Amino acid sequence: MLTSLFVALAISAVFAGVPNSDENKRMMDHLSDAEHFKNEHHNKQFDHDAFLGEDQAKTFDQLPPEESKRRLGMIVDKIDSDGDGFVSLVELKDWIRYTQQRYIEEDVHRHWVQHNPDGAETIPWETYRKNVYGFMDDMSQADLQAPNSEGFTYSNLLKRDRRRWTYADGDLDDALNRTEFAGFLHPEDHPGMRDIVVLETLEDIDKDKDGKVSLEEYIGDMYKPEEGELEEEPDWVKQEKEQFTGYRDTNKDGFMDAGEVKDWIAPPEFDHAEAEARHLVFEADSDADEKLTKTEILDKYDLFVGSQATDFGEALARHDEF
Length: 322
Ligand SMILES: *[C@@H]1O[C@H](CO)[C@@H](O)[C@H](O)[C@H]1NC(C)=O
Fold this sequence. Notes:
Number of strands: 6
Structural class: mainly alpha
Radius of gyration: 21 Å
Bound molecules: 2-acetamido-2-deoxy-beta-D-glucopyranose
Number of helices: 17
Mean pLDDT: 79
Distance between the termini: 36 Å
Number of domains: 1
Helix content: 55-70%
Low-confidence stretches: 1-58
Largest sheet: 2 strands, antiparallel
């Protein structure tokens, strides 16, 4: 079982009390940004969690299976842009990039309009803080500082948002224009925000707060055996341990520091869309010809509806495409 799922559940429980559900969702996205960068096991599981966690009315899994397969088939036709009957790696990569960009653009637009209804050039920090965390003004210092309380969780999220805001604020006027705001909301998509993504990821995994990631913390972030069960460690966990020791911890001091975390989640040339496309082709290409037919894709239906190729199934539920 994944920690990220527990975190997501815990946070969603906490945020049930916050008025603005759109902001709740962003908080959860916030937590998930870094997950996008992580290794394949994590990623795959994350894709499914994210998909299943979608609570919008038009979620894909509310469609009857025949209908969702029909829609997936239509998406395959679109991905196959040269119409040769095969989905190539490049076509799949282009499609994933397209759906990612579309999702990000719509998300930024929605939040931008919400925090800036009058269409000003910038959103000042204070406006954003009031909109999102204004309810904290009514809480006492004791409420905000009690360890493991809701108030404490909010305080930490506020601090994290404040810091990320400052990173995104290129001209340091404490207000974000649309470009800067996009970097704030989706740092994973902005090379200039890499360092803050690395820092937030490190902090999430670094449970003992010593500023570095131990092997236990690294594995603990991806894998938790069921309570009281003596199940044998899965092979992928063994492989992850070898990865940590053999590759991730490059200076062999037993820990991943910020630089090593950066090489892991955000290597300079890393292309997320390409990695996801390779992963999907690898998993679905049953005749190993390095391209996919519609049948191969429909045979791996579960994989694709949980994938970013369908924007977590969202593309299958969009009205404008069917
Ligand atoms: C926002 O400000 C940055 C500098 O921080 C600038 O490079 C960018 O062009 C501005 N974008 C818009 C939409 O004004």
